[in-house]
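[Discussion] Sanity-checking designs against the backbone

I'm trying to build intuition for which residues belong where. Below is a structure token string of 105 positions. I'd appreciate it if someone posts a full sequence so I can compare it with mine line by line.
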């Protein structure tokens, strides 16, 4: 059964509270956890392992939800803020990656 994002976010925050992450963790350690999960994502992509990619993407998202809670931020507001910036961005594709134009000085 698929759940709404907000319900999943709440469940993840409750899990983090139960595990003591929110009370005893630090924002820097949480950022390091996100980095660890991103490295696992890179490895899964390199190995073209779909199941591990799904797991790693979920784990990265969980760490970001917890980080946002620790920072007293709404992750959807952060996502909206990022979209508001990138939606106006110009650039080109180079070697399979979008490279934004440098701002004019």
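Best answer:
Here's mine. Compare freely.
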């Amino acid at each position: 059964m698929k759940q709404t994002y907000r319900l999943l976010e709440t469940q993840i925050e409750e899990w983090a509270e139960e595990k003591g992450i929110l009370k005893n963790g630090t924002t820097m350690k949480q950022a390091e956890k996100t980095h660890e999960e991103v490295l696992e994502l890179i490895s899964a992509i390199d190995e073209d392992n779909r199941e591990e990619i799904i797991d790693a993407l979920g784990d990265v998202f969980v760490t970001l939800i917890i980080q946002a809670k620790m920072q007293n931020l709404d992750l959807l507001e952060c996502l909206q803020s990022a979209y508001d910036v990138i939606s106006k961005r110009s650039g080109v594709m180079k070697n399979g990656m979008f490279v934004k134009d440098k701002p004019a000085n």
